[in-house]
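Hi there. Long-time user, first ticket. I'm pasting a complex I've been working with (about 680 residues overall). I'd like to know whether the download I got is complete or cut off, because the file seemed smaller than I expected. Thanks.
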Amino acid sequence: MNAEQVTGSTYLPKAMRIGVLGFGGLGQAAARVLAPKREMILVAAADKQGYAYAAEGLNAQQCIANYQSHGSVGYLEPFGTLTHRSIEDLLEKSHPVDGYFLALPNLPNNFIPSVARQFIKSGWRGVLVDAIKRTSAVEQLLEMKEELQAAGITYMTGCGATPGLLTAAAALAAQSYAEIHQVEITFGVGIANWEAYRATIREDIAHMQGFTVESARTMTDEEVEALLDKTNGVLKLENMEHADDVMLELAGIVGRDRVTVGGIVDTRNPKKPISTNVKITGRTFEGKISTHTFTLGDETSMAANVCGPAFGYLKAGIGLYQRGIYGLFTAAEIMPQFVK
Amino acid sequence: MNAEQVTGSTYLPKAMRIGVLGFGGLGQAAARVLAPKREMILVAAADKQGYAYAAEGLNAQQCIANYQSHGSVGYLEPFGTLTHRSIEDLLEKSHPVDGYFLALPNLPNNFIPSVARQFIKSGWRGVLVDAIKRTSAVEQLLEMKEELQAAGITYMTGCGATPGLLTAAAALAAQSYAEIHQVEITFGVGIANWEAYRATIREDIAHMQGFTVESARTMTDEEVEALLDKTNGVLKLENMEHADDVMLELAGIVGRDRVTVGGIVDTRNPKKPISTNVKITGRTFEGKISTHTFTLGDETSMAANVCGPAFGYLKAGIGLYQRGIYGLFTAAEIMPQFVK
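Hi, the file is complete. Here it is re-exported in full:
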């Protein structure tokens, strides 16, 4: 960080002021990830029914407690505000925030792009990061590249696990090869209780045969339960529409048709049904065909593999922003920076 | 690339003009890696006895043939020049070169830093990339950071396989964790004939007990042969002084004492004795201890895993340079860009 403030007799770098939009499973995990950090502080959090802001930092546990017991961080005293226009109202206050993590379920599929548009309209300048999944959603953001640049916003898209960490691993692994033949992402997710990640599970269901984003979004909890009962709580996902493909194509690594994403989600067991991995197959300059493999440790949760990278990319984005570099970037182009 | 030239009726991006300094095993492999690329052309190559330059591009096979039959690329007609001051003479000519890969053995241990100093003195501006190995060598370059910045040079250090590709994989994998406990790099190298990589093998021997950089450098080929005879051609290396440690420390990921590098080199068999991998162990925000693993395909050679990343970082460095960003960067901070 270039920005510094005098603290006692020594100069300490000023912590990056972070906002988290969306306070479901992912947003709550994000707040917990931030809590022990010295380089970043959570100053703002918002959900459908309200928001909370504190210049000196919000207490993650208090935010989570208020959300879980009352349904909104807006109930947090004395920092909360109840409103059904939480993002607009938060932005109107012009509180100083360096970067926001859009921990929002992208339902409908243009929701996150519409939030990005709200940021542009508000005149806010800074860094946005998302952990969006679908190719068609990233494509909507790609169309906003010039607008974001003109607005002085550095937007990091596809910065969760897949797309995100695993896409970046593929981009890195590709360096050994003269030509890439195949990128194959397979994820395993185990959660004890699907209700902790209602929106994420609905986004997964939307990828299954016979479902659409809209039909999955409007399912009642009972309908989701009934579906999960049929499969013993396990969702098998193949040939998913995941933005890893467009991100790797955009980075000049491989055509999108050579990138596949699939996985198994067990909604009744925290143990992963399979190890999450990405395999990158290509041809070396000597003509050898080979495969690099990046495998995530089974004990790492979806939340750890999404929120950690998201903040690493947010920190990298703040570095770009400070150099006056605005626009749209993906996880395949930028190295995330470790947040202490 | 921003620089464009008119070709017929369409605008094609201008290829990046690349020089390769050092034309032993690594330099020759680098020339072969570049040969099929459209985004980069090899315009300069230099060795101890001479250099070759061609604005329209050198033929890799012809450079290799002249080096192998006569001992120097300087014999290449009509582009070669014979000189024992090849780097100085090449720089004095002020040929336009966007970036150089320093494919030089770092023997003695201050050799590559001394070459960087020559570049600074010459007034040349552009991008340099190395695949240097030792911590102490990277530390010498770190001391030159401001000088490089003032000179308008973007220097990418530690951008081979280890340090380089594997260090970057560790930096990426670290994102899932709140705290990193251990980074363990283990490499396997198989080469059919040690004489194809004389300098690299001497650098490896210098890491063994009872040897120093100086004593390994001055070994005759017969002495190397005799040593390899004793071990059936296999070198076992542990706790090597590899700059992965300082690079990960500098990136704020983990203290250098938590990073270990070791490996097995078989000098009589192209098959790798073990799969090269990096294991990153840490604690997630939920308190779980886990390990991510990145494993290179056994069919990928040392040359592919060093030269590919080096040019990927060189391309990324040229992007930084074009934005006016100079100084010293490591493989742990920047995402390499795939070169087509």
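A couple of notes from our side: Chain B touches chain A through 54 residues (CB under 8 Å). Residues 1-9 of chain B have pLDDT under 50 and may be disordered.
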